[in-house]
Design a protein that fits this description.
The protein is mainly beta and 163 residues long. Helix content is 5%, strand content 62%. The strands form four sheets. The protein has a four-stranded antiparallel sheet with strand order 7-10-9-8, with no helix packed on it. Strands 1-6 form a two-stranded antiparallel ribbon.
Amino acid sequence: MNQDRNPPIERTGTATAPAAHSQPDGTVTVPVSQEEVAITTRVVDTGRGVRVSKTVTEQPEEVREILWQDSMDVRRVPVDKVVAQAPPSRYEGDTLVVPVLEEILVVQKRYRIKEELHITRVRKQHEHRETVPLRVEDVRVEAFDDGRPGDRHHPSQQEENES
């Protein structure tokens, strides 16, 4: 709803100025008048408004990212070595060496390394591609009239103005 741009003006006071009066002593009395204004506003429904509409669409978007994948390469290495006590696991560079033990029966008990597991991390790089939907909003704002008579945008008056 819109407010009037030119609100009505109400005038108070007399329409004509009163006449001057002469006094017997020769003085003239002149009445002084003053106009007053009172301004008021009123709400007027013009039938005009705004319509807002929003649509959401999805657009495919390809994303590319470099991913890492770790796997373990396990090799069995035969050793066949007799030792006095069990050796701990150890690293040789990036490779973890885990001794696999076996007890053998002799007059004495000794350790013999039967084999070692050499475990190496193998890192491979590959590119991953995937299409994912992304949402996009589009907003449309349009003015409209409800077609009341007297509106300057009324369809029947537009046709008359065009002819």
